[in-house]
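LOG
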Amino acid sequence: MKLNATILYSCVDDEKEEASTPPSESSPPAPASIVVGYAFTSKKKKSFLKPKFIRFARNKGIQFVPIDLKRALSEQGPFNIVLHKLEGRDWSQVIEDYQRLHPEVTVVDPPEAIQHLRNRQSMLEVVADLKLPESYGKVCTPRQLVISKNPTSVPDEVVKAGLTVPLVVKPLVVDGSVKSHALFLAYDNISLSELEAPMVLQEFINHSGVLFKVFIVGESIKVVRRFSLPDLSETDISTNSGVFGFPRVSGADSSADDVDLDPAVAELPPQPMLEMLAKELHHRLGLRLFNLDIIRQKGTKDRYYIIDINYFPGYGKMPDYEQIFTDFLVSLVQS
């Protein structure tokens, strides 16, 4: 993929390990009454199962047990809950077989439901189909075009789709890799024919450089502000050409929560709107753990765009995640 400009944002990883010192326990841990089997990559384990969280959960009677991928899952446990975030058809089949054999165990979440968020076309189609009331704001998705191959006719396809540059370019498949979270900004049609497929081309929407990352854990919603791509002026659009690369934006290190922003820019999306949105997506996607990347169109008070949905995001960077996630696990067993 052609790059005609230097990288403007450093690569930020929401799941980067964070050094932490476990707090001293004020009281003895409760006997383990909830056993959670987990299957994570080593990176996910470090970012999510932090010492503070493990101790917090232990005080609530929750024990985390690693799943041995070299042994049959049905021979392990017994578990009350299975948490997982692994890729591949083989693992999906393991989970599906386990669910049939152990319907009494809560699996978070079904592989077929997770798969829906592995594709940036299908993830936003769900949002586009929502018919939410606009009492608190209008929820939209950016117009986009999927390019599955590398034809030289890409510029023509863009024109036929009614899109104009600049365009945000993202990989079509979301597989958890750094590459799948990279994005590019294309300023001219000629450069589009040199990009690497499969990819999604999305219209660029000025949003004052701020993105709202909405974490959803079951029924709980937590919103944080992150810096995003800067606004583009007519001069920027007319004088720039080629492709600019942004390996990753809106990561935890780009927090905008403690910055003195214009109140109109900093104002969070209305809570009632987020609650309706989370409820509808939970129902349609069949998922309990995901986050939404939402922007507010510049110059509007209530026009929002969902530009990405991620499964089991970096909760370790979410404020109060220890309490929120512990309550979520307890609620799963109680219900």
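LOG (cont.) second protein
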Amino acid sequence: MPPRKSSRQTSKETTNEDVQSLQQPYKEADQWICFINNTALEIDPNDDTKTVFCKLRHPKTDRGAIFLFANGDKDVFEVAVFAESCRSWLIDNTVQQDGRLHVTTPIDSLFLLLPYLKKAKEGGMFMTLDQIVCDSDYPECSRIVATSGTSELNQIADVKGSDDLQVYRYNEEKVLSWLQTKTERMADKLSERGICVSGAQSSTYVRTKRAMTASHDDYIRYAYGMVCDYIPSDVASQLREHMKIPEVVEKKENEPPNKKAKLGDITPTEDYSQEKSDTKSAKAGKLTAGQKKLSKVDKSGMKSLASFFSPKAKS
């Protein structure tokens, strides 16, 4: 049976109506099928802040993506979408044509703050979070300031000021150290769970005995790729150099060799004529008794057998 939306999900705060104005592809859908963590649906009657979907700038692609804020904006979730061309949902006695499945997963809000801190670094000054997290294209980004992850900003930025007023500045060394810790922890988790990280099967998260043969470097490389899905490309390059992760160049399947490699040097590397003559001399040294007697016969004036089959000369 397809999952049904709970009564809490059908409330105004979590319906698709709030999201239709945020992202064009979702305007045709009247509702979503969405798996949401129970903690995101728990509403505090003493808190006026509701669970909402927001469109924010993705830290890697720099394009708009949907996120879910809950518990007074303290928790933030990434909304992943799984879509197939031929899929729909049966809900009660109706058919929902939009067969996409939305899944919310927790995300560290420091990843969302990282691009804003990096951009503010260009001025070289310490700034407050309200000054740093400012985006006219995505005004809902101000919600990031209230997330619980901001309490750990000292891991990626220099902090000055008192508890009442603190200012921040991007610190590249701290960022790389923080990302390295994230990568190493992810690698350890992958190793503990026996996730296969070798070859094409690595993206399927299949747990096999083959996974146990993967080296620590394989897990580090795979975890690095997962972390890079949430950081800008230039920071990903810096992290690769910082962790000394070798870049793997994948060879395309059924790739034809280039012309130069195919032709190569056509000069023979061995003297085959000498080998042939040596073979003849070797054979000549192994004559039968009849061949030996025939070799002693005087053949002067004798015609060869081939001369009898040659065409006769014209008179």
